[in-house]
């Protein structure tokens, strides 16, 4: 294989870079070790498009957060992704916190955040009636928003592919070869790619990939964050992300709503040693962590209906020892760009990171000739449940598979699942992230076997080969009692 640029990692960062590069006449290969896009940190975060007052002025994080935030509206419009600019609050629970609010406001102003203001108790409780009566004031940031992080990353990848990018899945990068201090080829488990430019956007493993070219001046540590999601029946207990004042290592455990209408609480922040990221159970939740999340969130919104949680999950922030994003080239290795340490606010910053990386590639000698045929539009996939009764009727008339509800909690139809396979889903999680099948109250208890059967049919594979999220995660081993029958030879 040959490529002008190889992008390693198909999380939000790699996806945004690949889609950004697809504007130009270039051969681009997006290489991902997993069976689908966004199975890393991008699948497990709070989905907040931060306004930009949390990070210290002068850092890359602070700059790219504010510029990334401003790019979201247009990007989501182009990609058919839902985005709500619903603002955010940092709440003061005592007089000491008031000082922190003012510090954050000043920091935000220095970072270029617009519209920040400190609001008093009355306005705050009008905005958020479920908030604790202990809340005395808040920093209101009207430019913050929410998005579905996996929908965003998948949409970026789909649009990149539509514009000529090749995605190589289940392709782990194992080596990067150089010659005369310049990138020469990338060796993956799916073959070798001759290239002069590599963008390393491999998240938690960006230090390992960087070491493949001999750059070993940073390390990536996992910082775990755990969450609870509540049943939709609970509704949205807040109208926007509601933070406490931050801790030295995180923005604090918050109460938010997802773009799909669930209340969500979390994440805590647990620093783990570097080896932890290689462990099989690295995104497992813990009793202590979830207890901490529930207790802290209850300080903001009392009486959270604990019995109405439907899922808990954990994500790992890729935290660098430099405490900032590392986005740079290296004079001794032409053509190699690290995009590492992309912890929070990486989702927000991703569109701005892509612009920065494209600029660095240009400085490294990549010729950027705009491609006339570039099409920024990705058509929004049909979501049956959002259609009017007339729209539903018309759709079912055209394709009766839209009349067959497979996921009863989220009202997802067979037609949408088939469409997801056509758009690239190969696994149960791939279907889940594209359609929301299995994200409702029963968490796939009802629809799981039905989705697996549809996947097997659409991919023309036996049911035994259907996996949750790729190699080794097969759902079934065979027909009931088949092993016994084999043994008894009947
Ligand atoms: C708990 C938590 C909460 C967060 N909340 C927010 C938030 O509200 N707002 C916000 O802006 N940000 C938030 N973030 C940060 C945000 O999620 C990340 O910055 C972002 O998802 C990072 O994306 P990425 O593409 O760099 O990494 P990833 O999504 O991890 O993608 C890296 C990809 O590289 C692949 N890869 C790794 N090694 C190789 C290899 N050798 N070969 C091929 N592929 C490889 C991986 O499989 C993976 O798919 C949060 C993060 C966490 C964990």
Please give a structural write-up.
The chain is α+β, with helices and mostly antiparallel strands and 490 residues long. 31% of the residues lie in helices and 22% in strands. It contains 13 helices and 23 strands. It has helices at 12-21, 60-79, 95-111, 121-127, 149-162, 206-211, 287-300, 346-363, 389-398, 414-422, 428-435, 447-459, 482-488; strands at residues 5-8, 28-31, 48-49, 83-84, 88-92, 117-120, 137-141, 145-147, 166-168, 173-179, 182-188, 191-194, 197-200, 220-230, 242-243, 254-257, 263-266, 270-271, 309-320, 326-330, 333-340, 405-407, 412-413. The strands form 6 sheets. The protein has a 6-stranded mixed beta sheet with strand order 9-2-1-13-21-20. Helix 10 (414-422) crosses helix 11 (428-435) and helix 10 (414-422) crosses helix 12. It is globular, with a radius of gyration of 23 Å. The model has no long low-confidence stretch (mean pLDDT 96). The structure holds flavin-adenine dinucleotide. Flavin-adenine dinucleotide binds at residues 8-14, 31-34, 38-42, 44-48, 50, 172-173, 201-205, 209, 225, 267, 315-317, 342-348.
């Amino acid at each position: 294989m040959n490529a002008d640029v190889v992008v390693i990692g198909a999380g939000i960062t790699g996806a945004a870079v690949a889609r950004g590069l697809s504007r130009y006449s270039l051969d681009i290969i997006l290489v991902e070790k997993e069976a689908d896009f966004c199975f890393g940190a991008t699948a497990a975060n709070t989905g907040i498009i931060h306004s930009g007052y949390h990070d210290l002025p002068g850092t890359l994080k602070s700059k790219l957060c504010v510029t990334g935030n401003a790019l979201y509206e247009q990007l989501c419009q182009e990609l058919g992704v839902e985005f709500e600019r619903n603002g955010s609050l940092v709440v003061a629970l005592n007089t000491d916190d008031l000082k922190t609010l003012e510090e954050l406001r000043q920091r935000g102003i220095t970072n270029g955040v617009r519209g920040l203001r400190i609001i008093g108790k009355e306005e705050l409780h009008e905005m958020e009636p479920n908030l604790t009566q202990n809340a005395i004031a808040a920093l209101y940031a009207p430019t913050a928003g929410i998005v579905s992080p996996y929908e965003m990353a998948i949409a970026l990848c789909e649009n990149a592919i539509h514009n000529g990018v090749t995605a190589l899945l289940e392709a782990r990068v194992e080596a990067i070869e150089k010659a005369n201090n310049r990138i020469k080829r990338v060796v993956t488990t799916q073959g070798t790619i001759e290239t002069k430019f590599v963008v390393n956007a491999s998240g938690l493993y960006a230090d390992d990939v960087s070491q493949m070219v001999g750059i070993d001046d940073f390390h990536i540590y996992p910082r775990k964050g755990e969450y609870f999601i509540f049943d939709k029946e609970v509704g949205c207990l807040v109208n926007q992300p509601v933070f406490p004042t931050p801790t030295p290592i995180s923005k604090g455990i918050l109460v938010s709503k997802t773009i799909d209408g669930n209340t969500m609480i979390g994440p805590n922040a647990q620093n783990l040693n570097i080896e932890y990221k290689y462990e099989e159970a690295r995104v497992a939740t813990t009793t202590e962590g979830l207890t901490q999340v529930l207790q802290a969130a209850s300080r903001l919104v009392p009486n959270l209906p604990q019995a109405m949680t439907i899922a808990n999950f954990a994500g790992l922030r890729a935290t660098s020892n430099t405490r900032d994003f590392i986005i740079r080239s290296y004079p001794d290795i032409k053509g190699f760009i690290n995009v590492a340490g992309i912890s929070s606010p990486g989702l927000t910053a991703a569109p701005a990171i892509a612009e920065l990386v494209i600029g660095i590639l240009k400085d490294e000698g990549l010729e950027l000739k705009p491609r006339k045929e570039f099409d920024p539009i990705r058509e929004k996939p049909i979501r049956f449940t959002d259609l009017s009764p007339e729209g539903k009727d018309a759709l079912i008339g055209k394709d009766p598979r839209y009349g067959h509800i497979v996921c009863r909690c989220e009202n997802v139809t067979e037609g949408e699942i088939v469409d997801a396979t056509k758009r690239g889903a190969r696994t149960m999680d791939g279907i889940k992230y594209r359609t929301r099948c299995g994200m409702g109250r029963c968490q796939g208890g009802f629809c799981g076997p039905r989705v697996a059967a549809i996947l097997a049919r659409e991919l023309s594979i036996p049911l035994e080969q259907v996996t949750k999220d790729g190699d080794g995660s097969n759902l079934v081993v065979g027909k009931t009692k088949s092993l016994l029958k084999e043994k008894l030879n009947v």
